[in-house]
Amino acid sequence: MSTPLPSPIHPSPSPSPLVQIEEVQSTTKTARIAVHTHVKGLGLESNGTALPIAAGLVGQEKAREACGVVVDLIKSKKMAGRALLLAGAPGTGKTALALGISQELGGKVPFCPMVGSEVYSSEVKKTEVLMENFRRAIGLRIKESKEVYEGEVVELTPEETENPLGGYGRTVSHVLVGLKTTKGTKTLRLDPSIYDGLQKESVTVGDVIYIEANSGAVKRVGRSDAFSTEFDLEAEEYVPLPKGDVHKKKEIVQDVTLHDLDASNAKPQGGQDVMSMMAAMGKPKKTEITEKLRTEINRVVNRYIDQGVAELVPGVLFIDEVHMLDIECFTFLNRALESSLSPIVVFATNRGVCNIRGTDVLAPHGVPVDLLDRMLIVRTMPYSIEEMVQIMSIRAAVESIEVEESGLKALGEIGARTSLRYSVQMLTPANIIAGTTGRNSVTEADVSEIDELFFDCKASARLLAKSDGYLK
């Protein structure tokens, strides 16, 4: 009797390695810390008085209260065509005050910053650069009432017919779209061109869309929140089911600047042939917008304002280092400030009495007297040691650096001896020195070591004055 053969032994399958999922920390916060990241406003109370430390600003109470009055004038639209000059020594917070004004005005009011040296270009005239920035700082809020069909897509059926040109192909004759709202459902029979818009927006059943009745433009708002539990992980924006009827009137508000209107009308609408595309590519990158076009756009804008369709929002144009402008620019500014479409202009300078660029004439702040007459002047004062310590504390918190009290005091003393900008720049190197010794907080010893390693501008100038310089 034969013995049964033993069953073959199959090796057990080795366990598959687990898929490793690592969380990648976002670097957005650390990468976007700038010099004035900590400025969140002007730090004023409801009655307009400045708090000693608020909204990232320290000290400069008089200047902040004056800027608060300017903000109120801008909001009440009583300061269009006027100018403000922030004058003070370097590192006294002029740019911070201008940014504080923009923060107080909010995101809907245009704020256009520029530096005086930006006007010097080999491609465009100086006055054109100034006018372009003027137009960027003037907003236009267009209110439009549109008839729209809005709802959740419950049906999407393209109806096909025989191709009228012959052949075996079929074309879409119309498309049936069912839209649902809280009040009911309506089925629409739409043109095939709208079907192209639905495909471009990648609309499927369950999406919330709206279709403009006049133009047939399709806009996908998001996925209906009824499908929010459909998948565990999905990168979709879920929106509630629209209220009211499917066919309704909707108020659409659009914010643009006058420069946007200039640029969109200045571009020539070429054909689709190869020669037109080559001609468009061969054009220079920067072209001047003619005065005739701007006058025409101003006429259209004024008509919209008279009809109540649009509202003018005068913003803020901030020109830093205004002494870098020359006499031609100042003459142009005199005319531009008198225009009916003019923003509020905020100038900043750290010069005393100096030459007006392009002339041998001495003038306060390097600005002609006739332009100074149009300005409200706000002076910024140097910071005390206590205020510098407070500023260093705010900067350290923004940069996520722990600094001991003794270290902050040492940084304040260095700032008083040199400049506030130099002491702010010492924060990160001092933190690196503290990290190499295994400590999490910056001490007075770390600040002293960094102060010995680096020179500030005054110390470097003293060394050069004692020596013959570097070049022989």
TrEMBL record:
<keyword id="KW-0547">Nucleotide-binding</keyword>
<protein>
    <recommendedName>
        <fullName>RuvB-like helicase</fullName>
        <ecNumber>3.6.4.12</ecNumber>
    </recommendedName>
</protein>
<dbReference type="InterPro" id="IPR027417">
    <property type="entry name" value="P-loop_NTPase"/>
</dbReference>
<dbReference type="GO" id="GO:0005634">
    <property type="term" value="C:nucleus"/>
</dbReference>
<dbReference type="InterPro" id="IPR042487">
    <property type="entry name" value="RuvBL1/2_DNA/RNA_bd_dom"/>
</dbReference>
<keyword id="KW-0539">Nucleus</keyword>
<keyword id="KW-0067">ATP-binding</keyword>
<keyword id="KW-0378">Hydrolase</keyword>
<keyword id="KW-0804">Transcription</keyword>
<keyword id="KW-0347">Helicase</keyword>
<dbReference type="InterPro" id="IPR010339">
    <property type="entry name" value="TIP49_P-loop"/>
</dbReference>
<feature type="domain" description="AAA+ ATPase">
    <location>
        <begin position="80"/>
        <end position="382"/>
    </location>
</feature>
<dbReference type="InterPro" id="IPR003593">
    <property type="entry name" value="AAA+_ATPase"/>
</dbReference>
<dbReference type="Pfam" id="PF06068">
    <property type="entry name" value="TIP49"/>
</dbReference>
<keyword id="KW-0805">Transcription regulation</keyword>
<dbReference type="Pfam" id="PF17856">
    <property type="entry name" value="TIP49_C"/>
</dbReference>
<dbReference type="InterPro" id="IPR027238">
    <property type="entry name" value="RuvB-like"/>
</dbReference>
<dbReference type="GO" id="GO:0005524">
    <property type="term" value="F:ATP binding"/>
</dbReference>
<dbReference type="InterPro" id="IPR041048">
    <property type="entry name" value="RuvB-like_C"/>
</dbReference>
<dbReference type="GO" id="GO:0003678">
    <property type="term" value="F:DNA helicase activity"/>
</dbReference>
<comment type="similarity">
    <text>Belongs to the RuvB family.</text>
</comment>
<dbReference type="GO" id="GO:0016787">
    <property type="term" value="F:hydrolase activity"/>
</dbReference>
